[in-house]
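Good morning N.,

You mentioned wanting to compare the apo and holo forms, so I went ahead and generated the holo version with FE2/S2 (inorganic) cluster. This is what I fed in:
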Amino acid sequence: MSNTASHTLSFTRWLSPLVDEATFDFYARRINPTWRWSRVICRVTKIEPVAADMLAFTLKPNGNWRGFEAGQHLQVYAEINGVRHSRSYSMTNTPNPAGEIQFAVKRVPGGLVSNWLHDKLKTGDHIEIGQAFGTQKLPCNQPLLLVAGGSGITPVMSWLQHLAHRYQHADVVLLQYARDAATLPFQQQLAQIAAKMPNFTLQTILTDHPGQPPIVFDDQQLTQRVPDAQRRAAFACGPSSLTSAVRQVWQARGYTQPLLTEAFSPPALPDNSSVHPVALSYSRSGKQQQGSSGVNLLQQAEAHGLKPANGCRMGICFSCVCKKESGTVTNLLTGETSSEPGEMIRLCVSTPVSDVTLDL
Ligand code: FES
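and this is what came out, ligand included:
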């Protein structure tokens, strides 16, 4: 914990018999826009384009921020037309003496929060974030293959900055996918990393070419571009179509080196032929509903008027973890099933196989 954070903690502990958090925050924000009891408020110090459709935001958080590690994510909160929304993004830098955080946002057509961040948030504004989360750890002491599609480059940037700082001689190949040259993010920053890391190789793959089917990751491409893939630990991040393609090739080849994947889109749902009705029960609220094995449990609970905690809605942030009291569910990310009573599951990536009771 930083000195500032520990000072803030002692200060709020000293104040706690005298005033509650909401009252403290109400008055403190009038004196200084970043002062809060426990919430993390940041000043936006820089906004820069890193591709035609992507901006990188640099933030200076208040003393409640507990720091982060390379490859972690954060929740960003935005009040839009009086309604509070949140989205998960990945840090694109590494811990640094200035104590700054950087995250990047791709503009999503029709996306509420991404368009608000692009169009409304300005340098000098203040924004709230949650504490860093995510536990993926790259093995830094062996050759690596990084595969990034679209905004999947964001946690990869954080890893690369970490390697460039601590392991300059690491042997790393990055396969970076984007629709076209304009949407290929972080090219300038990757060139700077390449200048520091003699054994870093960047291969960019533009997927969209007029009149041709899109180029996708497959076995043949891996052979051509990374002939020594077998000796590399791998990390793939991007749309679930990309991460599953990498996982399939890895499994088909029987590779034993570790493979980590992080999908930046909700996992595919079961095909319609295997979908059947199930009974869903919610023990705390006493509610019940006729559900479906073809929809994730988060969406089904919300459709029934419940409001389970959630964040990324794609299995990354663990905000939606909930106790399953009975029944069997499938994890859409791993294909594993959970049948034991009392197991904790992520609602956003779990579909029911049988009747299920949740602690909601
Ligand atoms: S909402 Fe992030 S893991 Fe479910």
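The mean pLDDT is 92.

Happy to go through it together on a call whenever suits you.

Best,
F.
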